[in-house]
């Protein structure tokens, strides 16, 4: 039996929170709850899709491997976020691989259970489409970042999203290693290091897996308009 805290987190995910309670209860009763260690594979690219996934704790990355063996990070998900909805609707293999990048807990909802409920109530399909649209919107935002922002601006925005306050100074913990941060932001590790260096004059200091930000407002202004580019 899954812990009530885990169920509460799952209920707040985009996939489940808009559904009537009786459907949520059904999905939770059929869900599979797994704990993964850092570096453990959740599923592989081209593997037959079996479930839709909700992260309950930790971080999970989705990535593709190119024919030459290089890795392209597609997205990174954390607590309360779901993935795999579009594959569930299309009944096709996973187009990406998923890996735990920290110790994490994931809830897996078997696809046959979702499909069965969708036949009973179209609201299930609408909820899945809403989650899929959110993923698409996120990918469009990532593309916009790559096209419109410098590497240092992308890093600045990444750090701002980790802050739990709106102004003043702040210290944040980098949620995963710098290589993954670079991949997530469409950069090479050496480019990430240069970006951190460019942020030093505006009060950002990186100390291992911590970032000390002296003034959030200054960093926010920089993320919108890099003075070295104007």
TrEMBL record:
SUPFAM superfamilies linked to this entry: cAMP-binding domain-like, Winged helix' DNA-binding domain
CDD domains for the chain: CAP_ED
HTH crp-type domain residues: 149-217
Signal peptide as annotated in the record: none
Keywords carried by this UniProt record: DNA-binding, Transcription, Transcription regulation
All residue ranges annotated as the Cyclic nucleotide-binding domain in the record: 15-124
InterPro entries attached to this UniProt entry: cNMP-bd_dom, cNMP-bd_dom_sf, Env_Response_Regulators, HTH_CRP, RmlC-like_jellyroll, WH-like_DNA-bd_sf, WH_DNA-bd_sf
PROSITE patterns: CNMP_BINDING_3, HTH_CRP_2
Full protein name: Crp/Fnr family transcriptional regulator
């Amino acid at each position: 039996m899954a812990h009530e805290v885990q169920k509460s987190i799952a209920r707040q995910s985009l996939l489940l929170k808009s559904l009537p309670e009786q459907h949520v209860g059904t999905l939770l009763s059929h869900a599979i709850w797994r704990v993964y260690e850092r570096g453990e594979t959740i599923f592989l690219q081209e593997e037959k899709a079996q479930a839709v996934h909700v992260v309950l704790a930790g971080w999970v990355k989705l990535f593709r491997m190119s024919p030459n063996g290089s890795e392209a990070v597609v997205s990174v998900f954390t607590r309360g976020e779901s993935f795999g909805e579009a594959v569930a609707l299309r009944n096709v293999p996973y187009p990406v691989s998923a890996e735990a990048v920290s110790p994490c807990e994931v809830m897996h909802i078997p696809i046959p259970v979702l499909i069965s409920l969708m036949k009973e109530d179209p609201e299930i399909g609408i909820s899945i489409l809403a989650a899929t649209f959110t993923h698409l919107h996120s990918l469009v935002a990532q593309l916009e970042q790559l096209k419109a922002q410098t590497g240092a601006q992308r890093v600045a925005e990444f750090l701002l999203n980790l802050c739990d306050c709106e102004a003043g100074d702040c210290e944040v913990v980098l949620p995963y290693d710098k290589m993954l941060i670079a991949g997530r932001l469409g950069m090479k590790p050496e480019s990430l290091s240069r970006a951190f260096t460019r942020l030093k004059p505006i009060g950002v200091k990186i100390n291992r897996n911590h970032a000390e930000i002296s003034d959030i407002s200054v960093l926010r202004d920089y993320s919108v308009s890099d003075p070295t580019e104007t």
